[in-house]
Amino acid sequence: LAPLVEGGLRLRVRTGPAEDLLEELRRDRHDLVVSAVRPRGRTLVAEPLADEEFVLVASPAWADRIGRDRLLRQGASALCAVPLVAHDDELSVLRRYWRQVFGVRLTCAPAVTAPDLRGVVSAVTAGAGVTVLPRHLCRETLAEGRLVELLAPEEPPVTTLYLVRRPGVADNPCLEEVHRRLVAAARAC
Fold first, then answer.
1. How would you class 73 by CB atoms within 10 Å of its CB: exposed for 0-12, middle for 13-18, buried for 19 or more?
2. Contacts of 125 (CB under 8 A, 6+ apart)
């Protein structure tokens, strides 16, 4: 979107819980929302934007301590003594991974929480422990070897992201161009 900003587009980006952002979209506080939650009802129009695959990662030092073979043999129990890093106290992303990949309920508390996934990437890269991240967010650090993918399950957890807007919004060429570029960027990934 940078070329559009250079051309005069005013862009305001906000993060937060999906339900809050969707409610604010309904109240005309946003033009578009990228959401992991598909809105219900007819007040908003949602189109699938991209599928987000999740990966279990650690720093190379933690990966060596845990041992990939041990993790394959023991499953989640191989991670019992490993600090968990999450973006929330509920460990929502990690709980889903544990349930879907290991088939067990995660009952541990996080050792570190950071309110933003980029902070989680930084903490885990620095050696704070293990986490589950969207692959697109850690692709570079994985390629550089600063993070290690601990497992490669046949069916990793995937979340569909939706591009959401209000129906019947008057034609807005700038908004249509932002929409078009977001869709194109998602398809290119």
1. exposed
2. 59, 141, 146, 147
Q: In angstroms, rounded to a whole number, what is the distance separating the alpha carbons of residues 182 and 176?
A: 10
Q: Beta partners for 159?
A: 52
- Say how far apart CA 78 and CA 108 lie, in whole Å: 13
Cα gap 46→162, rounded to integer Å: 6
Please give the chain's pLDDT, 189 residues, in tens: 999 999 999 999 998 889 999 999 999 999 999 999 999 888 899 999 999 999 999 999 999 999 999 999 999 999 999 999 999 999 999 999 999 999 999 999 999 999 889 999 999 999 999 999 999 999 999 999 999 999 999 999 999 999 999 987 667 888 889 999 999 998 887
